[in-house]
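dumping this here before i forget
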Amino acid sequence: MKKKKILLIEDNADIRDSSVEILELAGYEVLEAENGKIGVELAQQHIPDMILCDIMMPELDGYGVLYLLSKNMETSNIPFIFLTAKAERADMRKGMDMGADDYLTKPFDDMELLNTIESRFQKKEKMESFYSKSFESLQLLTNQNQGLDELRKIIADRKVKQVRKKQIIYYESDTITGIYLILSGRVKAVKLSEDGRELVTGMYGPDEYLGIQAMLSGDHYNETTEAVDDTTICLLPKDTVKQLLDTYTDIGQKFIKVLSSNLIEKEEQLLQLAYHSVRKRMAEILIRLAKQQNAHESSEAQIRISREDLASMAGMATETVSRTLSDFKDEGIIEKKGSVIDIIDFSKLHKMKN
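structure:
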């Protein structure tokens, strides 16, 4: 079995030497660099399986290393772990937002180092396994194997990004960089009124796409998207998607079907806001959220959503949401603990909806 190759970029000779020794004893092939500039050159020459990189270094710091490697297609998908002193931990948000996969705080012991590396390799293997499952869903996008194979290759070559809960993926009016495929977790789409009030226009989960409408209609995103849970996404770049749409007309047709479905849901949401009672609106939203989680209406379903997000989706005050949910609970329709709602009687929700 071929040894996994790890590139260690660290200017402290003692830390570098001891880490190299540990990694080699653990069966890894190790490349070492004493500064960021040499590290970038070694990464581009040897394409390692993982990169461990200090932040504060001469020649080129860790942020610069990550930035340069992320711009190169061959190195952008390599798992990247920052090595940081305790005093620098406040700066790690910057590194994670730039695309780093994890970080280790110095000083670290042998097991911390090995466990972090092994954990990251395991996550990568799980994501590759998830891709195989996700590709079955991608069959919906095209009925031509050639187009599917090309889309499969594009997604597999893209680096997976971990987005933490409440982190913004893109803002309304941001220039379009591409469309996002959600691999795990949940994302909400939000529009803001002139007075700053928030309306949740959509809630999306695994195997769903963000930004299709904006991609097909203009140069800027038309809503803000925010992670509801810790979420894993993959960006399909704008130019690549355009080339796919130009080359495989069936993919364009399927994207248009997805877009049409989203527009129909938004039209229904507008009708609900304009004409439906508070109870009917809440019943419809709970049913819609349960369907997104593939819940079977013959059994109980569990939804995790904040009172504020429910209010934004329904166009209600949070106090109204609380009263309505309390009424549903008293009527034996739901159980509620914090942000978790257990639907225990779908039939009563459907009666209110109809």
